[in-house]
Write a structure and sequence with these properties.
Largest sheet: 3 strands, antiparallel
Number of helices: 3
Number of domains: 1
Strand content: 15-25%
Structural class: alpha+beta
Shape: rod-shaped
Order of helices and strands: HHHEEE
Number of strands: 3
Distance between the termini: 121 Å
Length: about 190
């Protein structure tokens, strides 16, 4: 008698599971939960991707403003004719602009940034050609120059993980601005 009742209990369990399965399959709630489970990762991937694009756009805007400001400053306040002084002045102005970007900081030796923030490195700043007084043949002569800069950006696609992880993307941004230095009156 126990064998028969045990077999009936198994059949009843399977019937209950089959009824529950049919109910879940037939109801809209099951379809909604499946849809949410499939779409939620896509939503977060899109959200984090937009955040990464925003970070790169903010750095590009700061780089553009820094290069423009340095060309403007060097035009208004000509430095000595030493090449290094012009490049240093341009580099400092670009670094100040990148440091002023709201959510980010330039990765320098003096400032430590958390591992979860995007990595920024000012790779190259150049002033070409550097206006020199020896090139001035007459007072008021205009000497054109170009300030160019390059920044490498490491953007983490999943916030909260270290930037050097497998889900970070490296982007190199370049920008340049033209300026004019006017030869002084002797």
């Amino acid at each position: 008698m126990s064998d028969t009742s045990h077999g009936c209990a198994k059949i009843l369990r399977w019937r209950r599971l089959a009824v529950l399965g049919r109910r879940w399959y037939a109801e809209e709630q099951g379809a909604t939960s499946t849809f949410i489970l499939l779409m939620l990762p896509l939503f977060f991937l899109t959200l984090f991707g937009l955040n990464a694009v925003w970070q790169v756009a903010m750095v590009k805007q700061a780089l553009r403003a820094g290069v423009y400001q340095s060309a403007r400053f060097l035009s208004a306040e000509p430095q000595r004719s030493d090449d290094g002084v012009w490049r240093l002045a341009a580099r400092r102005l670009i670094e100040e602009e990148l440091n002023a970007t709201p959510a980010f900081r330039l990765n320098t030796m003096s400032r430590s940034t958390p591992e979860t923030r995007p990595d920024f490195n000012l790779v190259n700043v150049d002033v070409n050609p550097v206006p020199k007084r020896s090139n001035c043949s007459q007072p008021g002569q205009v000497l054109p120059f170009t300030v160019s800069a390059e920044v490498s950006v490491g953007v983490n696609l999943l916030p909260g993980l270290p930037t050097g992880g497998g889900l970070s993307v490296g982007v190199t941004l370049r920008d340049s601005a033209d300026g004019e230095a006017i030869c002084p009156v002797r």
